[in-house]
TrEMBL record:
The keyword Transcription regulation applies. Residues 150-215 form the HTH luxR-type domain. The modification 4-aspartylphosphate is found at residue 55. Gene3D superfamilies: 3.40.50.2300. This is DNA-binding NarL/FixJ family response regulator. GO terms for biological process: phosphorelay signal transduction system; regulation of DNA-templated transcription. Residues 4-121 form the Response regulatory domain.
Amino acid sequence: MPVTVLLVDDEPLVRAGLRAVLEAQPDIEVVGEAADGAAVIPLVRRLRPDVVAMDVRMPLLDGIEATRALLRTVDDPPRILVVTTFENDEYVYEALRAGADGFLLKRARPAEIVHAVRLIAEGESLLFPASVRQLAAEYGDTGGNRAARAVLERAQLTERESEVLRLMARGLSNAEIAARLVVGTETVKSHVSAVLAKLGARDRTQAVIAAYESGFVAPG
């Protein structure tokens, strides 16, 4: 089965470019397009895409509010890939906080766009550690978010789970974490799953944001 994608961007040329790149792949199918976030929920309910590639800045309903609404109202929601013009953008950080699974720059090469969609569809998070650290440092309420601190305190992570979360925040993959800790990849997967469950995080992105917001990990 191909990975199905919904494109959401107010610029027709951007949507056309993304469609051309993605539909050149035999395992990816663009099933619909929208010019504003307000159209996302009805289209998702009708088309059931695996991935929504969504701009953050749109005139009626931006990608942040569209992400929040989608995750709040749709059962078994699709994965959300933010596609943005500017890397160091408060909108991007807010979209990640809202529940987006990762972000990609519009100027990315075709191969990077295809890789991002496949990765997101597989349930992974698309994190650029340096960029997320910079965004968290500039726009995040690092250490000052009481709700995030309370979540970390209630989670009562074990010493090993805490170590895994810190390595996740640095952007290490499961295989890289396994190599660093000298354990098996399956063991790391179990630790990651435990961390996500204890934090109530949808994915690695949300866990990392919680780590920064709570002050558990310093973004600097």
